[in-house]
Specification:
The protein is mostly helical. The chain has helices at 2-14, 16-37, 41-69, 74-103, 105-130. Helix 1 (2-14) packs across helix 3 (41-69) and helix 2 packs antiparallel against helix 3 (41-69).
Length: 134
């Protein structure tokens, strides 16, 4: 509910590309903050709340952006985007436990940051192609 509410309030003001970029950056910061505050119960709960809030904001704010990338094939592109998100979650479900078992929580937090940076690069590519890049 929080992520969707923030999208409703902020996406039109910030712009779709900036909102997605902000979500990626904030989600990365939340993952890194978990490394610092996650050692204590209250810190871990607050950190996880912020991580999931920023993640949900990111996913929901990406939906309107994806509908504008290729207007002639909106439904197809949206379906491909949701399928890619689902595939990413499925792969993460398989890979993350092994990563955690081998190298601990810091590795999973840094993996989230790395994938967010890759997504940020992809976002910049989409925005450049549309002519909206900073």
């Amino acid at each position: 509910f929080g992520g969707e509410s923030l999208v409703g309030i902020l996406v039109d003001r910030l712009g779709k590309g900036r909102a997605v970029g902000l979500g990626l950056v904030l989600n990365s910061l939340a993952a890194l903050a978990l490394l610092l505050v996650g050692q204590y119960l209250a810190g871990a709960l607050i950190g996880l709340f912020l991580f999931y809030l920023t993640f949900e904001f990111l996913l929901v704010s990406s939906l309107p952006l994806m509908t504008e990338v290729l207007p002639s094939a909106r439904a197809t592109l949206l379906a491909v985007n949701l399928a890619a998100i689902s595939l990413g979650r499925a792969v993460g479900t398989v890979v993350a436990p092994g990563l955690y078992e081998a190298w601990g929580f810091p590795a999973t937090a840094w993996a989230a940051v790395v994938f967010n940076l890759l997504a940020l690069l992809a976002l910049l590519g989409v925005l450049r192609k549309r002519g909206d890049a900073p």
